[in-house]
Design a protein that fits this description.
This protein is an all-alpha fold and 484 residues long. The chain contains 23 helices and no strands. The protein folds into 2 domains: 1-207, Up-down Bundle (Growth Hormone, Chain: A); 256-484, Growth Hormone, Chain: A.
């Protein structure tokens, strides 16, 4: 414990907290649109009526609202394309500050949309904010892992998800009709993300750049050492980390293009791992519950469906905090495997309970428990780890591309699910959860056989797992026992 305390400094903690203010904003705009949906739809309809002297057709209103909700995720998908260019050209810290300008612009447009009487301005605002989402959720782990010591790397990376989940809960609360989700205040409610955005501009410039970026990408050894000394108390730890970075730099190329990233054999296994872990995470059912939990609870005849949705948000936050404390003790592999297997079981139970609920309405309380357990299983493993595992599996030159790839998979998965889930639910009924179960089981199986444990290992040591023309048969390694 003394070793951990010796690594935790005020500068390090400030740097991490300042970085995750971005994910707090993203979570806030994920959770704040469900409760005031009816009020904002009425604004859409009133705007249309003032222009055309007739109400908007119901199907058009539904389509427009679906577009308004999902456009953020589509923006996230496109925003991810800029991660490598920003991160390599301007550094990890400065890139976060550049991306933050998009958050401020997006929130401002959402705020003025009511005064401008334009739902188009609101949609454009959410799209621009989505561009920020795609950048920030990749840049944050890049920066956090670049400044964090080895024994706190996973825990601090998990703080990104803690902040995201806290933002979701905050958005759910502020969006209630009894708070700011009203006809008078909904535009103000959408603008409150400006507070953490401005706070980030006040704090992050005072924090050091990633020493790993300065040393390996920029060849600025003195600046990297200076940044490390600000982040660490123990000078012995500084010299040890400098030696680790020199070792990694000796095995790293000057740069990796996108085409080389997908062609090189050493990246093949990590790419497949990132693909399966992230799609397994996004298509495991969690996002369907986050987006449509109120409708699920209403369908189950709960009178206070909105407040049960707040329960979903609270469970979400609680178990990301559990993951924060477990990730450096249990390891990434164990938490991922336990999470995927538990999520698969929950989806099977969702299929069963949803199928028999019309004939046995008393089982609705069991369905609530299953939903809560699915949320907790997701956030203990797949939720936070899927966002940062790519930063650990790839070497420094490929890391920004890997994080952009992660962001595209995550936001693309969210976008597809937001669009397709209502139709799939109508088409498949309760059996839609079997699709989610299958995705979770595929991710569990591939993770079990192919993912090396990254806890407590240097970046160069992890990269060595995949180095070589044909790669290493990971499942044959003696250190690969899943639950030992």
């Amino acid at each position: 414990m003394a070793y951990v305390e010796s690594q935790l400094t005020a500068t390090l903690l400030t740097s991490v907290v300042a970085a995750v203010l971005g994910s707090l904003q993203i979570g806030y705009h994920t959770g704040n649109v469900n409760s005031p949906a009816r009020v904002i739809e009425e604004f859409f309809n009133a705007t249309w009526k003032s222009r055309n002297n007739e109400s908007m057709p119901d199907h058009s209103l539904t389509l427009l609202w679906s577009l308004s909700v999902s456009i953020k995720d589509f923006g996230g998908l496109l925003g991810a394309l800029g991660v490598k260019c920003l991160a390599d050209s301007y550094g990890r810290r400065n890139s976060i500050l550049i991306a933050n300008a998009l958050s401020i612009l997006g929130a401002f447009l959402m705020f003025i949309s009511k005064t401008a009487e334009s739902f188009e301005v609101l949609i454009v605002g959410r799209f621009i904010f989505g561009l920020f989402c795609g950048l920030a959720m990749s840049l944050n782990p890049l920066y956090i892992q670049g400044v964090s010591p080895l024994n706190l790397r996973g825990a601090f990376a998990t703080l990104n998800q803690v902040s995201f989940a806290s933002g979701i809960l905050l958005g759910m609360v502020v969006g209630l009709e009894t708070v700011l989700g009203t006809e008078k205040y909904w535009a103000l409610m959408l603008s409150l993300s400006l507070i953490p955005a401005l706070l980030q501009y006040m704090t992050l410039p005072l924090c050091p750049e990633s020493p790993r970026y300065l040393f390996i990408n920029q060849s600025k050894e003195k600046e990297a050492e200076t940044a490390l000394r600000r982040l660490r108390k123990n000078s012995g730890n500084v010299m040890q980390e400098m030696e680790e970075m020199k070792e990694e730099a000796s095995h790293s190329e000057a740069g990796v293009t996108v085409s080389e990233f997908f062609i090189k054999r050493r990246y093949r296994q990590p790419i497949i791992l990132v693909l399966i872990i992230n799609l397994g995470s996004q298509l495991s059912g969690f996002n369907a519950i986050i987006n449509y939990s109120t409708k699920m609870f209403t369908k189950a005849k709960f009178e206070e469906a909105t407040y049960l949705t707040l329960g979903v948000g609270a469970i979400n936050v609680a178990f990301t905090i559990v993951a924060f404390f477990l990730v450096e003790r249990a390891g990434r592999r164990r938490l991922l495997l336990t999470g995927f297997l538990s999520v698969a079981l929950c989806n099977l139970l969702m299929t069963i309970t949803d199928s028999i609920l019309p004939f046995a309405p008393d089982l609705r309380s069991i369905q609530v428990l299953v939903i809560f357990f699915l949320i907790s299983a997701y956030e203990v493993g797949p939720g936070p780890i899927s966002w940062f595992i790519a930063a650990e599996l790839f070497d420094q030159p490929a890391r920004p591309i890997a994080m952009a790839f992660t962001s595209m998979l995550n936001w693309g998965g969210k976008f597809l699910l937001a669009l397709l889930f209502p139709g799939l639910l109508k088409l498949c009924g309760a059996y839609v959860y079997l699709i989610f179960m299958s995705m979770a089981l595929i991710a569990f199986t591939y993770t079990m056989f192919r993912l090396p444990e990254t806890k407590g290992r240097t970046f160069d040591d992890i990269a060595a797992e995949f180095r070589g023309a044909e790669g290493i048969p990971l499942h044959n390694k003696t250190s690969f026992n899943t639950f030992s």
